[in-house]
Amino acid sequence: MRIEIATLFPEMCEAVLGESIVGRARRAGKLYVHCRQIREYTQDKHRRVDDTPYGGGMGMVMQCEPIYNCYRAVCEELGTKPHTIYMSPKGRVLTQQRAAELAQLDDILIICGHYEGVDQRVIDKIVDEEISIGDYVLTGGEIPAMVLTDCVARMCPGVLSDDVCFEEESIYSGLLEYPHYTRPEVWEGEAVPPVLLSGHHANIEKWRHEKSLEITAERRPDLLARYTDNKE
Ligand code: 4FV
Questions:
Q1: Which residues of 70-79 are buried (b: 16+ CB within 10 A; e: fewer)?
Q2: Assigned domain for 149 exists
Q3: Domain residues for 210?
Q4: Dist. CA 131 → ligand 1 center (Å)
Q5: What is the pLDDT of residues 65-79, one digit of tens each?
Q6: Could you give the CA distance from residue 84 to residue 99 in angstroms, rounded to a whole number?
Q7: Are residues 22 and 75 in the same domain?
Q8: Are residues 143 and 184 in the same domain?
């Protein structure tokens, strides 16, 4: 999979995507991520990327042309149009299921807005999908783009170590994850649940599933209802 990220802050993105699991996968050639500086696609000597909003109001709006030029450069390099995503509070909120679907694609381009956002005309012209990471407003689309990239990347072949399988994770099934424990067996007087020390895998799996159901019922009854419907 190839993930292109159009941003005004590529260093910010690389600081995240060059580290840990995603960074190792990139260096191992298991994942291709390219952060592009939108300013490189301007034609004026001041490398202008934004301007004041028509109709007045506060803040600045990112202009069409630099984003469109960046998009066309990606299309030319790929030899095809990538699935183009704009990170925005107006988008559909990201889910594990949607991330799993995106992980099946060959190429995605993620556009990071900044300031008040992006001129609607370039969104209408090139964006296939708007995705939100939640119902709140951030200063820029870079952190949302990192969230999306991380969530999608970990489901790409070869990114997670062989002993980790995302399809077995509770959230992939639609439930919240069960509690995790590691050494020491007793910490501050709190012991690890005995079933996890039993070596009885069927009982451990049963306990974990019951915990997922219990935690999901308590904290996200909406997810449990969807999970139950899907099981029927
Ligand atoms: C956001 C979100 C988000 C809005 C204006 C960037 C900011 C600025 N993106 N999920 N929540 N974006 O707040 O995706 O351009």
A1: bbeebbeeee
A2: yes
A3: 168-231
A4: 9
A5: 999 999 999 999 999
A6: 14
A7: yes
A8: no
pLDDT average, residue stretch 161-185:
87
Q: Are residues 139 and 181 in the same domain?
A: no
CA 117 – ligand 1 centroid, Å: 8
pLDDT (0 to 100) of residue 158:
92
In the chain, alpha helices (H): 10-17, 20-27, 64-78, 96-102, 120-126, 142-153, 170-173, 201-219, 221-231
Closest CA to 115 of 49, 65, 69: 49
pLDDT value of position 90: 97
- pLDDT tens per residue, range 180-227: 999 999 999 999 999 999 999 999 999 999 999 999 999 999 999 999
The domain boundary, picked from 153, 185, 217, lies at 153
Question: 158 lies in a domain?
Answer: no
Using the mean position of ligand 1's atoms as its centre, give its distance from the Cα of residue 91 in Å: 9
In this prediction, residues 101-121 reach a mean pLDDT of 97
Query: Based on the domain organization, do 145 and 217 belong to the same domain?
Result: no
Q: Which CATH number does the domain housing residue 99 bear?
A: 3.40.1280.10
